[in-house]
């Protein structure tokens, strides 16, 4: 494996994607889930390092940050504001509502309109903004009619509290149902070389020109055989396996907007090295042939 080194390359090397037709961002973002405590619960062990990560992300050209009220809960959004407010004009912050955290390791859907309104109001205060750039429904709630959950976001958008609406953890059917109520600008689903369950959703996003935000791009390291393929390609390119996995995502679709997260500046810089990689077509094909783990 290549020796891990930091990078000073700029996220602009990944190119840009225009969210909603009026929010151009560099096509390599930052997911702010892991700047919280262990298990995505409570305060981080080193709050100042978490803030350094956020500031360094902007220095390296990252113009899209994804977070959620459930990260901490509330901790991630508050740290973003503490580190970055007042925000530069080019920065787009997306957050999510619709999951509650009764305790560490617990993630419970709550798509009730009254909860989503309360969640959005809380995010506005913590992020210190009057309007959220992209507000995403975190997860469909099986106990609430989907149109009621999306409808709550439509109302908040009409009030000027949300600029654009996105969805997370959805199927193509969910997207089509939401589109009957409002324009949708982004989809955030689990996706990687190791888990392509959302390939139909990605294909739909390509046709509709919706930004696709893949979460968990390395699947915690991936299955052994697949990880071996990526490790070998990493060796050839003097890169890390994570950089290769991220570079593959960028090459796989022009609507892909990776949002890898971390709580360490060195890891942030290492991840960003992916934008400088130019994988050979044969190497991309090798990764394409990885058989995803059955789920």
Compact summary:
The chain has 295 residues and is α/β, with parallel strands linked by helices. It has helices at 47-59, 75-84, 113-127, 146-158, 172-179, 199-208, 224-236, 241-252, 265-272, 281-288, and strands spanning 16-19, 23-26, 30-31, 64-66, 92-97, 99-100, 108-109, 132-137, 162-168, 186-190, 211-215. It has a single domain (11-288), classed as NADP-dependent oxidoreductase domain (TIM Barrel, Alpha-Beta Barrel).
Give your account of this protein's structure.
- The protein is an alpha/beta fold and 295 residues long.
- The chain has one domain (11-288): NADP-dependent oxidoreductase domain (TIM Barrel, Alpha-Beta Barrel).
- The chain has helices at residues 47-59, 75-84, 113-127, 146-158, 172-179, 199-208, 224-236, 241-252, 265-272, 281-288, and strands spanning 16-19, 23-26, 30-31, 64-66, 92-97, 99-100, 108-109, 132-137, 162-168, 186-190, 211-215.
- It has a seven-stranded parallel sheet with strand order 3-4-5-8-9-10-11, covered by helices on one side.
- Helix 1 (47-59) packs across helix 2 (75-84).
- Residues 1-5 have low confidence and may be disordered.
CATH superfamily: NADP-dependent oxidoreductase domain
Just name the CATH architecture.
Alpha-Beta Barrel
Structural class: alpha/beta
Overall, the morphology is: globular
Strand content: 15-25%
């Amino acid at each position: 494996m290549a020796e891990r080194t930091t990078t000073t390359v700029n996220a602009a090397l990944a190119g840009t994607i225009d969210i909603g037709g009026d929010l151009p961002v560099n096509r390599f973002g930052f997911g702010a889930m892991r700047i919280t405590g262990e298990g995505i619960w409570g305060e981080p062990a080193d709050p100042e390092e978490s803030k350094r990560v956020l500031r360094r992300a902007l220095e390296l050209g990252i113009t899209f940050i994804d977070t959620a009220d459930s990260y901490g809960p509330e901790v991630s959004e508050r740290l973003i504001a503490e580190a970055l407010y007042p925000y530069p004009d080019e920065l787009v912050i997306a957050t999510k509502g619709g999951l509650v955290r009764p305790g560490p390791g617990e993630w419970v859907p709550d798509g009730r309109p009254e909860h989503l309104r309360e969640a959005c109001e809380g995010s506005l205060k913590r992020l210190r903004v009057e309007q959220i750039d992209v507000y995403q429904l975190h997860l469909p709630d099986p106990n609430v009619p989907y149109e009621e959950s999306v409808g709550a976001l439509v109302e908040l958008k009409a009030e000027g509290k949300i600029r654009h609406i996105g969805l997370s953890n959805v199927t193509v059917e969910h997207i089509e149902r939401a589109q009957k109520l409002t324009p949708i600008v982004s989809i955030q689903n689990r996706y990687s070389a190791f888990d392509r369950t959302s390939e139909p959703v990605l294909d739909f996003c390509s046709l509709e020109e919706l930004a696709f935000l893949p979460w968990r791009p390395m699947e915690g390291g991936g299955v052994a055989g697949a990880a071996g393929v990526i490790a070998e390609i990493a060796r050839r390119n003097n890169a890390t396996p994570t950089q290769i996995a991220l570079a593959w995502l960028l090459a796989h679709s022009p609507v892909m907007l990776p949002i890898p997260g971390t709580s360490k500046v060195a890891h942030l810089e290492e991840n960003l090295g992916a934008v400088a990689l130019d994988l050979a077509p044969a190497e991309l094909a090798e990764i394409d042939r990885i058989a995803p783990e059955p789920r």
